[in-house]
Amino acid sequence: MSTISQKPSVAPTRPWAATPRDRALTALSVALSILATLTIVAVTPMKGKLAYFFLFFITWFIIDSLFVVSKSGSKGVKDSLAAKVTLFGGVIVSMAVFSILWATISNGVKGINLAFVTQNMREASLFDPIGKGGILHAILGTVILIVIAIIFSVPMGILTALYLTEIKGRAAGLIQFLVQAMSGVPSVVAGLFIYAAIILNTPLRSSTFLGGLALTILMVPTVTRTAQEVLNLVPSDLREAGLAMGATQWKTVALVVVPAARSGLITATILGVARIAGETAPLLFTVGVFDSYNFNPFKGDSGTIPTVVWAGLMGGTPESIQRAWSAILVLLIVVLIMFVAARAFGSKQPKR
Amino acid sequence: MSIDTPAKVIPAARKITTKPRVSDQIFRGIVTAFSFSALLILSLIAIFLLLKGFTTFKEQGLGFITHFEWSVTQDEAGKEVAVFGLQAMLIGTVVISFVALVIAVPLSVLTALFLTFYAPERVKKVLVTIVDLMAAFPSILYGLWGFFVLMPMAEYWAKLIQKWLGWIYIFDVPQGVYSRSPFIAGIVLSVMIIPIITSVSREVFSQTPLDRIQAAYALGATKWGMIRAVVLPFGAGGVVGGSMLGLGRAFGETVAVYSVLNIVFRTNFQILFTQGGNVASMIIQKWGEAGKTEISALMAAGLVLFILTLIVNFFANFVVTRAVKSGR
Amino acid sequence: MDKSSQITQNGTLMSENQNTTPSSLSDVAAKRAEAKVAGTSPLGTGLEARGVHAWFDKHHALEDVSLDFSAGTVTALIGPSGCGKSTFIRTLNRMHEFIPRTSMAGQVLLDGKDIYEPGIDVTKIRLQIGMVFQKPNPFPSMTIGENVLSGIKLAQLKVENNEDLLEECLTRAGLWTEVKDRLSAHAGGLSGGQQQRLCIARALAVKPKVLLMDEPCSALDPGSTLRIEETISQLSKSMTIVIVTHNMQQAARVSDYTAFFLSDGGPGQMIEVGPTNEIFSRPRDERTENYVTGRFG
Fold first, then answer.
1. Global pTM?
2. Chain B within 8 Å of A220 (Cβ-Cβ)?
3. Predicted-complex ipTM score
4. Does domain A118-346 have CATH number 1.10.3720.10?
5. CA-CA 20 to 30 A from A114: which of A147, B240, C80, C162?
6. Which CATH architecture best describes the domain C23-292?
7. A94: which chain B residues are within 8 Å (Cβ-Cβ)?
8. Does residue C18 surpass a pLDDT of 50?
9. Residue pLDDT, tens place only, B46-85
10. Which of A76, A86, A159 has the CB atom closest to B113's CB atom?
11. Using a CB-CB distance cutoff of 8 angstroms, which residues of chain C are in contact with residue B229?
């Protein structure tokens, strides 16, 4: 239609969005609240970071209410209070996380040096001055542990997920329920179980292999549930296309479904590893502690990062605690890297 | 008028059967077999813990649950006398988990509401990442942070609470020691279970039917009015279920609690006082110097803990599944 | 107040003495004005949309609709799916903005005041312009009585006598005799048609001046549809009603005026508006004729 081009163009607007005046009022109320908070802190004996925080929210609410009440009455005050209280909840949760991250980084870096990640503790003890000895043995121990857990739990988890999404057998409801139940098994129970079932009954003694078995119990539910989610995202017409071509279900799953969900399955594995990498309690029963390299997964205690942290914390001297912080920093960095990797792979999921 | 039409002949429904090819049968067999590993593992846990803890159950009987003493001594004849009772630890577990829920549930619900209904897109993304990250922190990290960062602050809060609310029994302390109390352990646990409760609540809140939300707004409701009239009644089941999942996690937590709790075999409801219990961390505490008899008792304690968490998780999953399904 | 600005075809808002649009339009305008004189009522000046546009993100969904809803009339909005009529009705009580990344342009005047004015309390606007939705959506956690009064509670209004209001609203919605004995039963037990009338009663309880109905019968059986139509006829004596419908018989049965919306692939536009009998008997626009005679749509 030729008339369209002749029309004056109308710009889209958002009359419901905050106007500059609204923004100015918000800024003003925040500024006034900060001022009031500082005054109260200066005049009264209240102290501490949290006092600042609470006072700010209370004064902000009061001051902002004065602005709101003129516009929309008591109903508006309740609404603006609700908005602020939910924000308050979110901020407290974030503060806890930042407090944890900050404590780990600020305390941890002090003990990080080349020796810390390239040496073992054979020649040093937890109580020696920082700079002597390192946790390479524990890093390697944790790596071996993770590899063993992956070897067992990834096939178990993915096959269980395939049962729930592809075969959908009669027992699917029961299996789903059991996987959920399994995700609630306390880690200490997993350790006790391996001890009771294997160490008390067979000649096998604590080793990374047994530790890997204990961690498998904790890892399988995470892998299963995430894998199940990504397999459910594989479009069903892909499956039907495979079956319609006369392929067997097995071929369809192996050549169509699993490749389509590949990056999601990697995410499932990474999330599973992140879940178990820092587990401590089961290792105390199944892996023990050791201060040097042990590359035999079937024989002998082994060092692991969580148990180094544990020993450092229990040691109680400034040096041992420093080592605990530094070791947890190393572990946290590993977990963070996995976390980022899981998200990167996760964002590549097939579209519904 | 007689009806004489012959009855309609309805053919019996044919059964559609396919005989899967051999390769598919093998595939299905293998997958099905593996899927039962969850059942196998859970049964083995129950069987072996029962087997190894059996002597304790037999000797202690019901006292294993109801008694509050835990000791292995020798009588005059040099014979070993063992008394094992979990009462103090079971009550302690419930007390710290309760403290954790009291703190975590409101914060999680507020955070979930903020994420679902208030946060701008960018803030939402960041906060969701933060909450997910929280769930990925190792429990030993929570222990370390709880001991060195939280405890000094929490002791100060505890003193304030005692000062103003000390007339209530649970907020009073017999002696002025505030460190390593159930209160502090509860706070640490609350931080650990916040991501669980938040993510379940958020999922349920986000499934609130849009037409009900619009109905409330069309009646002149404010956002908060809409949340109260529509979202909270709808999401209540999810919040309860999520809280129970969190409770299950809190029951079984070991090293984080052990780091910040002074484990004493005495039933204590005064949450600010440095005395508490938790079955999971008690097992770690006693493990180091446990003899044969005591190991059996610890296995039995592990079984009790296992069953307890299974029950809590069972109900939690039941409630969550129902809450999530009702939204679809 | 004869601004005769309600009818536009290509988007330009006509004001009194301009005569730049085809003559057929002025015919309609004249007839419309007559109708307005006839329908002059003490209910107020009604609702008026001026040059309303709507966007979903970058997608231009509705282009330059100007439409005058005189007080005390029923206006039907008809047109094929995707023509922007539902979008338009949602801009009339500011429900449009709940969809993320939407925007709009133009004005909507209620009694001469722009409801999109900055600083206005939007919840008060929605109290005056009620809405009934396509799918019956009573609050399942509330009883029948609580549902009717839910608007009072949500808006924190003061009411002298709840019972009287309850009876009045349910009676006006044509539901009173059916539910008067089970006001404390849960709303989920009602049939679809009853639920929809409950939603109408709920909307009436806050005493709106205008009631918007977005395909209120499309999810209902013919019997229930008839009951709702009776209810609309009753209500039209005391309020302004705007109803979106796919059903042309329904439009013919319940409305005083009909506006036809169409999208030719681009944004939805209002093609034609007029007294309902004219739109159905001798539409001006060929596209309207094609639609009302069932040649497409």
1. 0.87
2. yes
3. 0.89
4. yes
5. A147
6. 3-Layer(aba) Sandwich (3.40)
7. 127, 130
8. no
9. 999 999 999 999 989 888 988 888 988 888 887 888 889 9
10. A86
11. 139, 150, 153-154
